[in-house]
Amino acid sequence: MFEYLSKNVTSLGIHITLLRIHMFHGLYTALVTPFQNDRLDMESFVQLVKFQLNSGVAGLVVLGSTGEAATLSLDERAQVIAYAVELAKSYDKRVQVIVGTGTNSTHTTLEYTKQAHQLGAAGALIVCPYYNKPTEEGIYQHYKYINDNIDFPIIIYNVPSRSITNIPDEVIARLSELKNVIGLKDATADLSRPPLLKAQLKTPTKFMQFSGEDCTAVIFNLHGGVGCISVTANILPKELSKMQRLSLAGQYIEAMSMQTQFAELNKAMFIVTNPIPVKYALYKLGIIATPDMRLPLLPLARHHRPIVDAALHNLKLI
Known about the structure:
Layout: H1 2-6, H2 12-21, E1 26-30, E2 35-36, E3 39-40, H3 42-53, E4 59-62, H4 74-91, E5 96-100, H5 106-118, E6 123-127, H6 136-149, E7 154-158, H7 160-163, H8 169-175, E8 181-186, H9 193-200, E9 208-211, H10 217-222, E10 227-230, H11 237-248, H12 252-261, H13 263-268, H14 276-284, H15 305-314
Parallel strand pairs: 1-4, 1-10, 4-5, 5-6, 6-7, 7-8, 8-9, 9-10
Antiparallel strand pairs: 2-3
């Protein structure tokens, strides 16, 4: 593997140059939303955000799948976004906040996207509409409607394990031609996608591809990605920020060495539905006050806890 990595960095100078033109690149943490007694726990949220900001992350993603966004009211969403944006701005204006605004309703998605824009976020992460199971043309028209009704950066979120639909490369290529559609978060773990998709893009240097799977974070960049939107970064923001910087600088051997160290933890974070394990881990580390979830999700079952505990222990985190 390391020999393969060392032989495939000949275009490194070009890749680093292209990174400079991208408005987003590096490590973005897909933040959990802490709850206590079924209410937002903003004290824990602030502590989590400060932990991230002090660890060198490029940005924060709030209200995505990891943030249990589907269970929050419009007012709760506003509170989470406002806190994240204000904290990021007060710490370092270069740290960007991206908001998950996608739903299975095009009009609600637009409403949520406008809210994120008004509250000072840097962009919207919009999942492929779930449950409705739209056609390819329906998917295209969904994103085009958002694009046409707000001037705000849009990152497509392709996560077929949750939305059922795997957005075809041909549709993504069409969407990339829209003014505000600037990139893709791909959570398929398909490492053949970055170069194959790139070959179909009319302006491949302007369209950003992010890994949405921690287990592919380094190799995804080798194949043309510009970063990772990470669940495990809730726990290891400093280490995974360094790993991203190494990979984006072409130091793939060093980055893969780090990736290997975190393999057990990455696996543990998905033993059941995300964000159940990562909330338990954050609770064990004392970063959030409770591992509480909102129904229909439940806290990590007792028989699964030793798996997460072992992964944390092996990294000397507990």
